[in-house]
Every structure is written in structure tokens, then in C-alpha cells.
Amino acid sequence: MLDRRSTPRRLVVAAVGLALLAGAAACSGPEDDGAGGGDAPAEGGTLTVLNTEPQENFDPARLYTSGGGNVPSLVFRTLTTRNRADGAAGTKVVPDLATDLGRPSENATVWTYTLKKGLKYEDGSPITSADIKYGVERSFAAELSGGAPYLRDWLIGGDSYAGPFGGGETTLDSIETPDERTIVFRLKKPVGDFPYLATQTQFTPVPQDKDTGTEYEKHPLSSGPYKVVENTRDGERLRLERNTHWSEKTDDQRHAYPDAIDVRSGLDPAVINQRLSTSSGADSKAVTTDTNLGPAELAQIGQDKALKERVGVGHFGYTNYLAFNPRVKPFDRAEVREAVSYAIGRSSVVNAAGGSALAEPATTFLPNQKALGYKPYDHFPAGENGDPDKAREVLKDAGYDEGPTITLTHSTEEGEMGPKIASAVQQSLQKAGFEVKLEGLEPNAYDERRWDTGNTPGFFLTRWGADWPAGYPFLAPIFDGRQIVENGANFNHAQLDDPAINKEFDEISRLTDLDAAAKRWGELDEEIGSRALAVPLFHPVYQRLVGKDVKNVVISDWTGVLDISQVAVG
User: Fold this and answer.
1) In whole angstroms, what is the distance from residue 498 CA to residue 243 CA?
2) Count of CB atoms within 10 A of residue 13's CB?
3) Percent of residues in the chain assigned helix, strand, coil, to nearest 5
4) Would strands 405-411 and 318-324 be described as parallel, antiparallel, or unpaired?
5) Which one of 181, 200, 218 terminates a domain?
6) What confidence tens digit (pLDDT) does each residue in 540-563 have?
7) Same domain as 534, residue 413
8) What is the pTM of this model?
9) How far apart are CA 4 and CA 64, in angstroms?
């Protein structure tokens, strides 16, 4: 996924994007009816969603992944989707509009999909392969930018195609529709992960004769269980009601238990948590998909059994880490980077992030998820509190009788890249003899600086999450030399461009056996980790309240947040 909460190019989540993590996800308590087995949850009522971030750009072409805490997936179906199940089971990709995960050619450069029979829009008209082709094509238009970049990079002709509007080519020849139920994608290179990519909202069907361009977000034609009946103040208020032409017979992943879903955004986090805690009136049937509980709130909840049973815990593939730019002295020397790695006390960093309930210590870049290819390693073992003696030894062997003076750049905004984390890192390094100066930048200036290839700081806090649960979108943007961006948002902060590493990215990417690919992603992570180009710090954890009348809570490791498509209210 990306640094999805602040970059226009790469979610979630986040997204998002997207806080996040590794491990199982679940919600304890009597209201958790599970995703399967037992009696089906009752239908009816209105589910309220209380969020901080507005559901902006509610157009499938402009959304990054399924953004907005799963709300878009209620309206937009795609060729494939995530398995709607708790924890690790939710990292699997499954068919959605398509009958299967796609049929690759021998070298995985051609992917063919067949649509299910009986698919319909909210107006009862049939969904065709031509609609999916057009939906993908319109995502290339400059006025509808914001989606993930992979199609532009992977489809033949995608790098020069400008969408169906205005002059130039109006269609993309590398997408073929031989009949109303078949669609074929022709790629520049082998891509074994294409079934994951086909979960992105850019694969949502859009009938060309109903497209209103930048106005489409106000009333996109639904292919999912709910349709948009109100979208005001650029997504601050979004009201959805059941799509009567959607059928669970063609969609075994989503449900439509509530009659309506009322999304209210632009709210203060403290207000959201207070309203969910009190659970009076409509708030008893409310959830949030973007607001975490803080340490003080968790301490209070820990003393209240009823509240504790309403907390959902989620994990998503995300890593907070210290990044080095080896073009800036003294980080051009591997010994200095290694000494930093030995010195970091992750216990103090985790405490600064809110404690063990909100952060899990990390020694690998890949989070602890099988789907990502996680392989445990610790090239620079420092224990919970760091190993300042080993750090001093490494520095001395490198000719530093005294620790070098270094600058740690961070955001001035409180959070995972803010002053508290920076201070914890500073204290660890000072114990090892480093003289550490802190450079705090306002969030926008901070983002511009860390993504600017020519002006990247030598040492700074940052984070990354996967656009889907596999190794490629987690490792390639950070360590593939071909993805260094000279004039734009660059995420390969170390500017690593090793032909052997680049070749391994290509070799693994062509694998359609996802388990075999995962194993090799873990091995590649271990190899890159030995070069001390980053210091993994922690994987954030989601802890979120739901209203007292919310049932059927499902939280997968794909998103780490409650899946609205499974929720019922009673």
C-alpha cells in the first residue's frame, strides 16, 4: 500500500491510506457473530460511520486501492476482491465480478478474465466487459487522477495513454473485449500479482454513456450491494441505500444487512471515540474505520468489561522505520548505519508510539504476515533497549573515537513520525555516543523533503504499507532501482539501484504461484536488510471501538480495519 495517509501517489490505507500491522485480527466479545456459521445476522436499520477523513473523490478512477475504510467496496465491485474473513484468512484474493482469479499466459504477460452471468447495475442494466475496459481507461485521464500507478506502468501503451477524453487515442488497445463477458489484459512484463491488482477500484465497471467525468463521483452507478443517494460537501456526508438489483447469488463476499449506511466525516477523533463509547441513539449502531483509540482511552476501557468487549483489534502490513540517504555523510558509510541499527532501543520507541497495545517492535522490513513472505531475521540484534556498547564498538572500528554528529528529520505533527518517536530515537543514539540534532518540519514540508530525490534528508522517520498483501508492493517501491523518481514523489530513499536486486524483483514478480513468490520475497527482504539501508522500528496496531448494537465484526489482515460489508446492526 503506501504511505497512504499523506501521499497522492501511493491507502490505505489509507489510507489511508491507511496505522497498520502484522498478525491475527479479531474482535472479542458477544457481538462478534463471525463471518460464517450460526444464524445469519438480522437485516434492517441504519449503520452510521463516524470518521475523521472525508470520503473525498468518490469515483473509482480516483480512489487509491479501496480507500476510505472499505466504504467504496459497498458500491464498487471489481474483477477480484479480498476474502472477507478475519485475520490471515482475509489476505487471500478471491473472484468478485470474475469467475476466477484470471487465467495467465505461460509467461504471465497476458491475463484473461470471464465475467459471471447475471451481473447488473443499480438501474438493472447488465454489466459487460466493455464497461470494465472503459472504467480502466478513464482512470488514465489527468482530470481523474489519484489511483494507483501500476496500470500505467504495466499495460502495453499505458505510459503514453491519456484516457478516453479529449484528443489522442481514445481507447487502450492492450485491453481487449472479444465478447460481453471476456476481457484480456496485455502487459509489458510478467506480473504474477495481477489478481491482486484487479482488486483496485480502477477495475470497477463504468458504462460509457453514463460517465459524467469529474461529476461522476456525485452519483456513480453502483455494481455493489449499496448505491449512493447523497454525497455532499465533498464526501463529508455520504448516504448509501440498498441496491435492489445486486444479488448475493453473484457476490459471495459482501452482505447488505443494514437498510442504509450513513457516513459522517470531518469529525474530531476524541469526539468519535466519545460518541462510540457512550453509544446513545444512532451512535449505538455506529463504527469508525479511521480513528484509533489512544493510550489514555485504552487505559479507561481496560477497566470497563463492557467497553473492552467492543474493541476491535486489527493488523495490516505496515512498517514504521528510520530511513537513510547514503548520499549524505556520514550515512555513506555502512558502519555508521550499522551502529545506528545496534543502538536503537525499540522498547522506548514502542512506548512513544502508545505502548505495546498500539505498536509491535520490528526487526524486519516485511511485517509478520505469511502472505507478505515474512522471514524472521535480526542482522543487528540490539534487544529491547538497544546495544550501545556494540554500537560504540562498530564506530570505533570504523575510526570514530567519538560518535559522529547527525541530524534526525521528523514531522512536527504528533503521530508515528512525530516528536515523541524522534525523541525516543535520539535518546537511544545518545547512549551510544552519537550527537543527535532534531529537525522538525511542518507536515507538508516534511513530505516534500523526504520524497525529493535531490533533497532527501540523510536520516529521517518514515513508513510504508503494502497496496495488497504480497511482497512486491511492499519492497519494490522502496528498494527497486528502476522505481527511483527524479522529478516527483520518490520512495526509494536509499536510492538503491543494484542490478542483482533489480533482477530478483523481476524473477519473483513473474511467479504466479503466490506461496512460492512469498518465500522468495522473505529471502530478498533478508538480503536487503543486511545492507543497513533502513532500521525497522515498529508495526502499528489498530484498536477501535464499535457501537453497542454493532454485530458481525470482521477485521482482516488485508486492511486492518472493520469490514463494513459484513456488519449488521441490532
Assistant:
1) 51
2) 31
3) 30, 20, 50
4) unpaired
5) 218
6) 999 999 999 999 999 999 999 999
7) yes
8) 0.90
9) 8
